[in-house]
Amino acid sequence: MSNSTYSAHPGLITVIRVSPIGLQAFIGFSLLASAASLVIAFLLPNEVKEAVIPNTGSLLGLMYAFNLVITLSNISTFPGLKKRIAVQFANVLLLVVSIVGQIATISNYQAEYADNPYLSVGPFRYIWAFVIPAIWIIVLLSPRITRFCMGK
Q1: CB of 41 within 8 A of CB of 60?
Q2: What's the CA gap between 19 and 78, in Å, rounded?
Q3: Are 19 and 150 in contact (CB under 8 A)?
Q4: Are 114 and 120 in contact (CB under 8 A)?
Q5: Which position among 23, 38, 108, 123 has the lowest Cβ density within 10 Å, counted as fewest Cβ atoms?
């Protein structure tokens, strides 16, 4: 029996392996941040969670878990097609929404709820809320990742 209707479709690992280093780094960072969130949320005492949240704005990888799902579920779905560009912009959009949400949160809760660990603003919150997402936006919009997502 012939497999003439079967088309070779690269697996997810293969697509990640040939993707630009910036996209590989984003996937790796998202995996680590998501795993750290799960460990903090479910395995560590509440005191650890209450110490982390003022500095990150939420659990570390909550937003990056969504980005990871979008990236991994779609990156090999459209190999070589321009539709993969939607993955790139969906990730950027989630990062922009996160930044805007953090601006609203920080401006509304900073002084008013200083003793509530879930609403207070720690010294590293600005790095997690603005600097890290901005760096990922720049990386995800880089020419190499754009060319990869366009299938060129």
Answers
A1: no
A2: 13
A3: no
A4: yes
A5: 123
Give CA–CA dist 92/138, Å, rounded: 9
Tell me whether residue 2 is in a domain. Answer: no
Place of tokens 């890290």: 132
Instruction: Indicate whether 84 belongs to any domain.
Output: yes
Token pair for 56: 């990150």
Domain count, the chain: 1
Longest Cα–Cα distance of the chain, Å, equals: 72
Residue that has been written with the tokens 């509530």 in this structure: 116
Answer yes or no: are the C-beta atoms of 79 and 9 closer than 8 Å. yes
Residue 39 belongs to a domain: yes
Distance CA 112, CA 51 (A): 18
- Does residue 87 belong to any structural domain of this protein? yes
CA distance 16 to 76: 8
| pTM to 2 decimal places | 0.77
Find the domain containing 66 and state its range: 12-150
Predicted confidence (pLDDT) per residue in 121-137, tens digit: 777 878 888 888 889 98
